[in-house]
């Protein structure tokens, strides 16, 4: 998998700090699962976060703090707990990254897709929160109405590809967009384009067509 489009620094730092929504964290984890470049950058982001913590003013310790720690070491309470092994969900479909597999019970082609408009189907993961997390399946050659964002939008391509003003996005690529970006993606391969999309606020369609269909497709 040759990945050309990556997460931006702000997103990686927010992920490392644990401040992203569940849907956005899921998407970031799903990209990182397949991207050695972002795995390395995440380690750097975590190191930066650790260094920042060390800069914080030290908290005054109780006079008997050392004694307390030593007492703890003498008991079993100080022993490291055995970490439970987190089971990896069974791999249903090689195009579903491992973190996402926890949320899906079927391969991509067998999911209960709901048609929004002809050629566009979706599956809402219903994670709650202010934004939405969904899988979108777009027929080849179809365009999503031109839109900008009130917040951030993360898109991870699972199958096929699309192009917009920013370039061509293929399986594994992530589009990390903030509210400055307005775009009109067009699926451009010979197969459906399936992507995972997480937003932290609803989209804002700019064209008349987009504004007309928005109430129906709920994007
Ligand atoms: Zn990456």
TrEMBL record:
Family matches, as InterPro entries: Anti-sigma_ChrR, Anti_sigma_zinc_sf, ChrR-like_cupin_dom, RmlC-like_jellyroll, RmlC_Cupin_sf
Origin: domain of life: Bacteria
Gene3D superfamilies linked: Anti-sigma factor, zinc-finger domain, Jelly Rolls
Domain ChrR-like cupin: residue ranges: 109-199
NCBIfam families: anti_sig_ChrR
Name under which the protein is recorded: ChrR family anti-sigma-E factor
Organism: Marinobacterium rhizophilum
């Amino acid at each position: 998998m040759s990945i050309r489009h990556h997460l931006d620094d702000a997103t990686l730092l927010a992920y490392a700090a644990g401040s992203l929504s569940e849907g956005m964290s899921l998407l970031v984890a799903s990209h990182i699962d397949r991207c050695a470049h972002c795995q390395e950058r995440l380690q750097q982001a975590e190191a930066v976060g650790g260094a920042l913590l060390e800069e914080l003013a030290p908290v005054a310790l109780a006079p008997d703090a050392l004694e307390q720690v030593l007492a703890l070491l003498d008991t079993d309470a100080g022993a490291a707990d055995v970490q439970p092994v987190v089971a990896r969900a069974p791999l249903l479909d090689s195009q579903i990254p491992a973190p996402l597999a926890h949320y899906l019970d079927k391969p991509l082609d067998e999911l209960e897709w709901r048609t929004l408009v002809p050629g566009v189907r979706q599956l809402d993961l219903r994670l709650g929160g202010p934004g939405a997390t969904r899988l979108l399946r777009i027929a080849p050659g179809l365009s999503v109405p031109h839109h900008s964002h009130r917040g951030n939008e993360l898109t991870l391509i699972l199958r096929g590809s699309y192009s917009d003003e920013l370039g061509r996005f293929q399986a594994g690529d992530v589009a990390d967009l903030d509210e400055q970006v307005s775009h009109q993606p067009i699926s451009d391969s010979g197969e459906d384009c399936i992507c995972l999309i997480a937003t932290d606020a609803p989209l804002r369609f700019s064209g008349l067509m987009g504004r007309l269909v928005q109430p129906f497709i709920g994007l």
